[in-house]
Amino acid sequence: MDIGAAESLQYDFSTVKAATNNFSEENKLGRGGFGTVYKGKLGEGDHIAVKRLALDSGQGDVEFKNEVLLMAKLQHRNLVRLLGYSIERSERLLIYEFMPNASLDKFIFDPIKRTVLNWEKRYNIIKGIAKGLLYLHEDSRLRIIHRDMKASNVLLDEQLTPKIADFGMARLFKTEETQGDTSRIVGTYGYMAPEYAMHGQFSVKSNVFSYGVLVLEMVSGQKNQSFRSGESIEDILSYAWKSWRNGTASDIIDPTLKSGSGSLRDIIRSIHIGLLCVQENVIDRPTMASVVLMLNSFSITLPVPTKPAFFIRSTIDPEMPLLQDYSSSTGSSGLEKPKVFKSRSRSSQYFANEVSISDFGPR
Where would I find the Protein kinase domain in this sequence (predicted)? Predict the structure, then answer.
């Protein structure tokens, strides 16, 4: 650890406490699996976002400072910038740049606000997120797999530039490492790649899967497992695939885009790219480098996507984070890979903790 660099990033705890009005409810911006985020205003007038980590993180001061140093070195226009940290006894604070337009989900899933996002703006957001992920996968000092890529973890600045946020669940790899395996599955149900949700296997292609779900949400303006078509509700992957196969891909498009200035051909091409990203076979999914290329060059012929990993509807809230509510005694957030009891029914699986999860399989 570079002690000098670590100290230069440290904020006085009392200063941050005062900036957030003693972490008041009025200043609360949101709550995640690893803590609560507050809006703050420093004495110089600068606005900040302060994440107050859960008290049971179990992480020592040196490890915490090391992680802060690493994340502070990540510099990209599509990543939220970490400004520093603060430590006071068991308190751990992370200080980020403040994003005035909050998170992408507040726009894209709101029937009024999403009308602000015409196709040009949505496409710029789609491309920006792709560039941020490419940086994490290939261009930063370490390969970083986010593991909780979703609309609420993409923040928007004044110009609606997307910035990937919340690296609390990220896994760091050396540049020569490509994949990992874990018995503690963390993330959000509706965005998780099947190989990760079922077997704990994750790689850069797990992020690609989550990104594909996000692209389809951006095109449709609807959440991944509550896509409404007429009176019926189903998951967006299933509906997008059926529409694509039947030549009716335009059915998935947000009606506000159809009457806008966006090119129908370009929107359908984005659906095509989204379906390539959510293919069930990990090898079939493109890299983020390929995705960025496909998004920026309309002359490239796209391969035909294979079936995605369909989600059979279940009682689990697709937005439910798989976090410490079901975790072990280690003190950190996550979900222990459950013991699976197979029944005679091919599509039914039950977990030891009685929390159900959908089986993944092509129809």
Answer: 23-299
* 121 annotated as ligand-binding: no
CB atoms near residue 138 (< 10 Å): 13
Report which DSSP code applies to 27. Answer: G
In order of their start, the domains of the chain are 3-97 (3.30.200.20), 104-296 (1.10.510.10)
DSSP code per residue over 194-215? HHHHHH-EEEHHHHHHHHHHHH
Tell me which residue has tokens 């690296």: 167
Q: Determine contact, residues 154/172, Cβ cutoff 8 Å.
A: no
Instruction: List per-residue pLDDT tens for the chain, 363 residues long.
Output: 666 677 789 999 999 999 999 999 999 998 866 788 999 999 888 999 998 987 766 566 776 787 788 778 888 999 999 899 999 988 999 999 999 998 999 999 999 999 999 999 999 999 999 999 999 888 877 777 777 889 988 999 999 999 998 765 555 544 444 444 444 555 677 788 888 778 778 788 989 999 999 999 999 999 887 766 666 677 889 889 999 999 999 999 999 897 655 588 899 999 999 999 999 999 999 999 999 999 999 899 999 999 997 644 444 444 544 443 333 333 333 444 433 333 333 333 333 333 434 444 454
Told to judge if 56 belongs to the known catalytic residues of this protein, a careful annotator would answer: no
